[in-house]
Amino acid sequence: MRGCPVADAPRKRRNFAAFLTGAAEEEAPPEPRQPSSASEAPLYPPAQSRRPATRVARPVSAAPPAASTTPVIVDPDFGDAVPVALPDHLAPPGAVIVAGVDADGTEYVLEDDPEAQPLVDPRYDLEDRNWVRYRTSWGGFLRLVAFIIFVIWLITTVRGRIYGWVDDQIDPGGQQGASIEFTIPDGASTNNVATELVNSGIVSNATVFRYWLRCDGELTITGFLSCDGEKSFQAGDYELFENMAYEDAVAILDDGPIPIIFESFTIPEGLRLPEIVDRLVAINDRFERAQLLEAMQNPSLVSQYLDPDAPDLLRLEGTLFPATYDIPEADLADEARFLRRMADEFDSRFGSLLDEFGRDPAIIELGLTDYQIIIIASLIEEEARVDVDRPLMARAIYNRLLTDTRLQIDASVYYSVNKSFTETLFQSDLDNESPWNTYFTVGLPPTPIAAPGEAALRAALAPADGDYIFWARTDADGVVGAHTFSTTLDEHNAAVAVCQELGYCG
């Protein structure tokens, strides 16, 4: 509408929700224009609250008005007010605004009618700053639809970027790189394996790899937090490649490590230390005698049961466990490693037997050390021929030690004069003053005389019951190599006679 000029209405400030929905925000009503002089009547006071209204032109009289056709505000309570032009959104509720008279003399007014359809004022002027164009009811809805479409596009775009990046980590594409020898150590966790795969250049991201494993290869943005799958890999050596897809790498790891090629070496019971060296050189052409002898002087290779006063050159005597060993191909030329393994095996076996059988009361009464028990086991290993004799022989040895009787074991004489059992002993051999000669000394030799096996060690810890003092080989009870054990000298002399008849005793 046009009329008297008024100050520009304050511009509305609208929030984001109002922008989307098109709803008008409540705002403080405009301050009424102050009259320019005291003679001017005050304007119609602003409304305290408004509701959205559509103003329509209605004919109210067919007769031309007597007054000017200038639109005026008619105050419902106080009569005519000062003519003034107001924007429609600032017109007070209940006001009747005279719109003008048409060519036929019909007067039109603008008034509130919530049910009416809006009409366009024929006098609409594009340059009229007071003209108000009402927003259609579809404006806010279209903005809301546009916003929803934008959000969907944004989420789809970001999701696609994330999935694309994850897919590039899972399968980088292209050709695989150089071959890499990858080792999983014993006790390595899945996290350790993932980290080492990245460090080796096999896969590109450890975090994605871990979650991919936990989700069984079905990694999603919303589902990875709920994945709880467990994956483990067998320790060992693998051949992998640079730039591998997760699926290809895991397939190789699931197949297990590269089979290790082993060589089996058997070290029989009863060998002396030089005989063990001879056998190792004979069965493995990668072992060198000089390297074996040098390794035997290494103080880190000794058994934990070694007596610190034992001679340096014989520190390993009796403490390298006789058994069959499987040696990886990579260790076939490592003499020190194999000797360390034999010493560790001895400590493990002897320690288990100590836990299982403890120590016989005779051992405790004599105050024997664990090293001295090993010495007794070595004497039993060399002297006994059959398993049934070993516990009986152990009891005879303890009975002799308790009475300070010389052990008089032929096997110790062979060791003292460095003869094999195929050779003949002479009286001069029996009379030699070596500390290993139990015909000459009372008590035990200073070191073991051979490598005792598990049966001899068990017999030394758990001897049979009895008062036996003597033994002689008689093939007792038809068992070749069996001994007869006696408690008196007469019984022993009878057994020696049988031994001589069989050609075992001189």
Strand ordering within the main sheet: 1-5-4-2-3
Shape: elongated
Tell me the number of strands: 11
Beta content: 5-15%
Q: What is the total number of structural domains?
A: 3
**Distance N to C terminus:** 148 Å
Rg on CA atoms, Å: 55 Å
* Overall SS class: alpha+beta
Report the mean per-residue pLDDT as an integer.
78
Portion of residues in helices?
Answer: 25-40%
Largest sheet: 5 strands, antiparallel
Uncertain regions spanning at least 5 consecutive residues: 1-13, 32-56, 61-87, 116-124
* Count of discrete alpha- or pi-helical segments spanning 4 or more residues: 15
Order of helices and strands: HEEEEEHEHHEHEHHEHHHHHHHEEH
Folded structure, characterized:
This protein has 506 residues and is of the alpha+beta class. The protein has three domains: 1-135, no CATH class; 144-254, Dna Ligase, domain 1 (2-Layer Sandwich); 265-468, no CATH class. The chain is built from 15 helices and eleven strands. The protein has helices at residues 16-21, 139-170, 190-199, 206-214, 246-254, 273-283, 289-296, 335-357, 361-366, 370-383, 389-402, 410-416, 427-430, 454-461, 489-501, and strands spanning 55-61, 73-75, 79-80, 96-101, 107-112, 179-184, 236-241, 262-266, 324-328, 470-473, 483-486. The strands form four sheets. It has a five-stranded antiparallel sheet, with no helix packed on it. Strands 6-7 form a two-stranded antiparallel ribbon. Strand 2 and strand 3 (79-80) form a beta hairpin. Helix 3 runs antiparallel to helix 4 (206-214), helix 8 (335-357) runs parallel beside helix 14 and helix 10 packs across helix 14. It is elongated and about 165 Å long. It starts with 15 loop residues before the first helix and ends in a 5-residue tail after the last helix.
